[in-house]
Amino acid sequence: MRKINKILGMIKSMKLGVILLLMLGVTSVAGTMIPQNESVQFYAQNYGSKFNNLLQLLELDNVYYSWWYAFIVTLLIINLTTCIITRLPSVVRQMKSIPDGSGAFTEKNLLFEVEGEGAIENLSAHMGFKKLKNIHENIYASRKNNIGYMGSWMLHLGILMIIVFFALGNRFAYETNLYGVPGTMGQLENTDLFMKINSFDAKFRDDFTAEQYITNIDILNNKQETVKTGDVSVNSPLRYNHYSFYQNSMGYAVNLKVYEGEEKIHDDVFYQSEVYVSNGKKFAVQFMNFYPDMEMTGEGPKTATPYFNNPYMLYAVFYEGYMVDMNVVPCNSSIKYREFSFKVDRPQEFTLINIRKDLFTPFAFLGALILIAGIMVTFYFVPVTLYAVKTKETTIYYICSKKNNEITRTKLLLKYDDFKRGEQSNGLE
């Protein structure tokens, strides 16, 4: 039984919770620093074979879905849940009870002394306390800011809700991406909704860094009826029926025409990073990179501005599975290899929209609000107890607060001075 109690005590300890939070923080940094969900070849090329083996073993290429990350999160959830459940009764008792005053009647807690019984009720009310209650013979007490005892408990509850509903959202939320140039329409995977891209505008600052991406879209039902129209921009998603449409990124596209001999076998938009493969899989073209305003430097081709002043594209040609050509060519160029040829023209920008439906987001947001409220309660609602000790000739007042006792004492002394001035004014009247 002792061992069980010891294990339970360890599980619900605050130290364990702090350690687990630190572990999550450190591992999350690893997940941010190391690119996630890339190919094995990518990690071997960029990190070396030895580190790549360790990376694969510890699943650092997929941190947030690794078994050990899930284990840490599960332990933290158990720790927080246990703390919340076991601490609630004691928190409620603290809020309802009044300390007996042992250790409170000291010089540092002394407020003032009033001759006779004084206006004890009026005085306590003026200082913001409820009616003084007799707790022991000639000792009276009252408390305020009792909700302060809930602060730490609310912090734990908020953190727990954020972790749980964020994890549930990652596990069960619907997410897909649609991209295209203006005029493109695509269906949201596994839904009866469609999205049409009406226009896309990329705004740049004077130094050519991206300022904003704005996409105007239509959302259509399965009858091709528009149910909502609006703009999607960075940090300003469009929402419809629990779906959120986020502006994710942008890229470049050209129009690609492919010929086999004299016969045109393909004529369509060709997106950056896309690969076109002929029906016979004999010929393929990869759109490797794009330079809207190319200039050649000692380090290779670069773009001077994001505008189509001197558009070039980097391509690679594959024939029967082997790369046979790679080059940078201006748009409106025609490239021929054996019986195949292709032409690229009409450069334009395309947009990528991320669509997400997460029914757990409002609950995670509620957890964040509870967390913020817990912080506010902890710092701004410090429980304070006022004691009044009656003697035959005087009433002595003491103040007891676990935090900022001296500040609280100074504020109450100012209120007492204000109360005395009010009494004197009433006496003059």
TrEMBL record:
**Top-level taxon of origin:** Bacteria
Q: Which Pfam families match?
A: ResB (PF05140)
- Compartment(s) of residence: Membrane
Per the record, what is one GO cellular component? membrane
Query: Under which name does UniProt file this protein?
Result: Cytochrome c biogenesis protein
Residue span(s) of domain ResB-like: 14-384
**Topology in the lipid bilayer:** Multi-pass membrane protein
Give GO BP annotations, semicolon-separated: cytochrome complex assembly
Q: Where are the transmembrane segments?
A: 68-88, 147-168, 359-382
Q: What is the lineage of its organism?
A: Bacteria, Bacillati, Bacillota, Tissierellia, Sedimentibacter
| Record key words, sorted | Cytochrome c-type biogenesis, Membrane, Transmembrane, Transmembrane helix
InterPro entries from the xrefs?
Answer: Cyt_c_bgen_Ccs1/CcsB/ResB, ResB-like_domain
